Amino acid sequence: MEKVIDHIGIAVRDLDKSITFYTNILGGTLIDRYRSDAKGVESEIAIFDINGDKVELLAPTNNTTSPIARFIKQKGKGVHHIAYRVNNLDEALIELKQHGIRTLEDTLRINKHGRRLIYLNPADTEGTILEYCDYPGQS
C-alpha cells in the first residue's frame, strides 16, 4: 500500500511564539488553529501549509494529562510524530497486523478536518511516533 507523508507534528511550549516563527521565518500560511480537549489529545493545534507541506504545531492544554505535555517533559519540544497518509486506513491496519506491528487502539479517532487516524506503537517503529491516516469521503 502506498504511503505518503501527510504532515509532521511538532510539540511546542508556546504556540503563539511558534506561530510567529512559522509565519514570519518559514513563510507558512496558518490554515487552522483550534483546541481539542478530547481524551488523549488535550492540545491546542495550529496547522500550517509551507509550500504544499503540512506541519501541525501541538501545545499541551493540560500539563498533567496531555500526551504532548508528557512528551515535552520526557524528550523536550520538537518533532513529535510523522503522519503517513494511506488510501484506506482499514486495509493499512490489516497490513500492519500481518507484519506484527501494533497500534495504540485508544488513539483511533476522526479529527475536526475529517482525518481518520491512529498511532502505531513506538515499540514497533524503532521509537518513532508514527501516525497512519486517511480522509474518508475526500479525494
Account of the 3D structure:
This protein has 139 residues and is of the alpha+beta class. It has one domain (3-134): Roll (2,3-Dihydroxybiphenyl 1,2-Dioxygenase, domain 1), CATH 3.10.180.10. Helix content is 21%, strand content 43%. It contains three helices and eight strands. It has an eight-stranded mixed beta sheet with strand order 2-3-4-1-5-8-7-6. β3 and β4 form a beta hairpin. The longest helix has 10 residues, at 15-24. The two termini are 17 Å apart.
The CATH class turns out to be Alpha Beta
What count of helical segments does DSSP give?
Answer: 3
Q: Would you tell me the structural class of the helices and strands?
A: alpha+beta
Number of extended strands? 8
Largest beta-sheet details: 8 strands, mixed
The CATH architecture would be Roll
Strand content: 35-45%
Helix-strand string: EHEEEHEHEEE
Mean pLDDT: 95
Number of domains: 1
Distance between the termini: 17 Å
Low-confidence segments, ≥5 residues, pLDDT <50?
none
The CATH superfamily is 2,3-Dihydroxybiphenyl 1,2-Dioxygenase, domain 1
- In angstroms, what is the radius of gyration? 15 Å
Shape: globular
| Residues in helix, % | 10-25%
CATH topology: 2,3-Dihydroxybiphenyl 1,2-Dioxygenase, domain 1
Query: How do the strands of the widest beta sheet line up side by side?
Result: 2-3-4-1-5-8-7-6
